[in-house]
Amino acid sequence: MYGVIGDPIEHSLSPTLQNAAFEALTMDSVFLAFQVKTGEVENALCGMRGLGICGLNVTMPHKNAVIPFLDKVDAPAKFLDSVNTIINNNGKLSGFSTDGIGALNALKKNGVNLKGKKVLLLGGGGAAKAIAYALAKEVDELTILNRSPEKIKALTETIARDFNKKVSNGLLEPSAIQENLQNADVLINATSVGMHPDDKHSLVESQLLRRDLTVMDIVYNPVKTKLAKDAEKAGAKVVSGVEMLIHQGAASFEIWTGRAAPIEVMRKAALNKLAGAKN
């Protein structure tokens, strides 16, 4: 048995992805969604041990709250102070963060070469921090714009020091986006702007997008956000938020099972589920 904990949880696509993977590999496993209220996280992880649940995904608002109740946390999760994947090894719980590797693999598997590139990252929340940490090893320069720049100042300084890369931060506003986008090779929206039901909005003016740009929007509902549609019209390469979702889930699957995740099966299941929700 596997599952995902969060509050709310009914929106999660994790059961769709993981159960499709189990079925494709004819594994005798099931993935369930568990609503866990704030304050019940310790009880939930005690239940994981007691019931022998093999693995859990962790979504908002518990990615930080689970950490004190784990026996071990890997380096990226410790740096980010965020765990989204837990594996149970005979009662010993280990925590990981696959958000960053999910974004990195989404870009790489879609033919994006990050070596020597300049990346503009919009947002400073948990997902943005995970993406920044993962990309810092690959890219040449990284600029992070956030509505509260002071909240990511320590992150940018630490990444710059640890990876010896040029990392800067600034205020998330139209003029800063315009200025930094001129020299960027890759643009990543790691905010919730453009998410259903407010899917008519984008942080980036369409005229700023260009053919030699790669654009990834981590919002996956709708599958094609306004930013993604505008980027397509400009001739830019577009990587959907569904891709990050799939590769994040695949990384979790591989941590739990030690088997290669069936990416195409997971992608088809996610897109079918999202199409059904839209209809």
Structure, explained:
With 279 residues, this protein is an alpha/beta fold. The protein folds into two domains: 132 residues, Rossmann fold (3-Layer(aba) Sandwich); 140 residues, NAD(P)-binding Rossmann-like Domain (Rossmann fold). A six-stranded mixed β-sheet has the order 2-1-3-5-6-4, sandwiched between helices. β8, α6 and β9 form a beta-alpha-beta unit. α4 crosses α5 and α5 packs parallel to α6.
Can you lay out the helices and strands and say which pair or pack?
Elements: E1 2-6, H1 14-24, E2 31-35, H2 41-51, E3 55-58, E4 72-73, H3 75-80, E5 85-89, E6 92-96, H4 99-109, E7 118-122, H5 126-136, E8 141-146, H6 153-163, E9 166-171, H7 174-181, E10 186-189, E11 214-217, H8 226-233, E12 237-239, H9 241-257, H10 263-278
Parallel strand pairs: 1-2, 1-3, 4-6, 7-8, 7-10, 8-9, 10-11, 11-12
Antiparallel strand pairs: 3-5, 5-6
